[in-house]
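In response to reviewer comment 3 from the previous cycle, which asked for concrete evidence that the modeling workflow produces usable outputs, we include below a single protein chain processed end to end. The sequence was submitted unchanged, and the resulting structure tokens are shown without manual editing.
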Amino acid sequence: MVASKARANRSGKLLENAVAYTLDTYNYLRVAGWLHHAARSLVQRIYTPQYWIGQDIYGRRRRVDFLAYHPQNWPDGLLIQCKWQASSGSVDEKFPFEALSIDYSEIPALIVLDGGGYSAGAEQWLKQYSQSPNTKLVDVVNLGAFQNFAKSKM
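The workflow returned the following structure tokens.
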């Protein structure tokens, strides 16, 4: 059990590294930390990994995988959450919590899914949820689609 959890953590980190590489490729500058509201005066695209942002739906401090800022496309920032699951497990049950926690924040978000271990129904639910007019969840994509998203919308 411990070995499988360590393997999952490594796989999740690989997905996060791929997202960071994509942001680097599209001229986002990685910064160690920044004040979200101060970024609005910048002309440089920036991103911060593992950013503490507000609270989740249970009132606990919430950390997101990335907070990206683009002066024209994402002037209020864009949260990017990476969800890797290679085999069936509890990730399906985590999707609604993630979606509701995104809506609890003031910043739009994107979820990058990969690994194929989540059920088709859970992925479909999450994608349908992102189409709701009142959600801050902009889209749900796999890594390849994220690269296209970053090229055209970031």
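Residues 5 and 11 are 10 Å apart (CA to CA). We consider this sufficient to address the reviewer's concern, and the full set will be provided in the supplementary archive.
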